Amino acid sequence: MPADEFETIARLLRPLTRGAPEALGLLDDAAVLSGRRGYDLIITKDALVEGVHFLPEDPLDLVARKALRVNLSDLVAKAAEPFGYFMAVCWPDGADREAFARGLAEDGETFGLSLLGGDTTSTPGPLTISITMLGWVPEGAMVKRSGAKPGDLLAVSGPIGDGFLGLKAVRGEIDDPVLSERYRLPRPRLDLRDTLRRTNAAADVSDGLLADAGHMGIASGCGVSIQLEKVPLSASARRWLESQADQEAALLALATGGDDYQIVCAASTALDGFTVIGSFTGGSGVSVSYNGKALRPERLGYEHH
Question: Residue 207 belongs to what domain range?
Fold first, then answer.
């Protein structure tokens, strides 16, 4: 490791441990985690790559915060209490490391997250960030994707499509600063943790509503039926939708765009804070309708390669 990397760790990254003893001051090549009686440790991992998950011109403090928040959203879907994270960063020349560390520090304080360890290295590009996040749930209480049953309600925690439109906004294709912020700085639904413990299955909406509901159906051995007209939309999304000539195609774009970081779940009864948009069925696959008309989307969401 180049000498300046030790200086970067000491000056910019060590403060992000927030004094967590498990981090060993980032002076070792590992962290030490002890168990928490009566709880399970939940581990999730997501990576962000410049040009794929954020734009090259995006401020790096916001990129750092987004990297934490997309992982927090995965923990939320498990009904977990966030604890800390490991991080690997591949820095291209000229990356604003100071701004990146400021973003991590800000959200570390906001969400009570401590940096526990990781690695930094140089790269010719692009900037790549990999976060492994840890959280706790009461023993045996993790909410899985696989608990849905035929007859369960399919419900979502908030507006869908703002991520899709937010990307258009940051690219300058539409003028809406609110949507730009929602794309660059998603809001993990930590407020739903207790409610989610009353659900049968859950996932966060990262790949697209249809895709992530479909993932739950596959994991649970169920089919999924979604009524697009019931999907909640923000005021910004409704204005955009009203401007589109093909309402069906526009709604499908919102429902497959991804990066919303709301929670989609299976529940036996309606839940406060969630909108029912369909149900789980026997069989398999995702069926989509709009005002009673069956639709056949070309894709369900983002496809990983």
Answer: 145-294
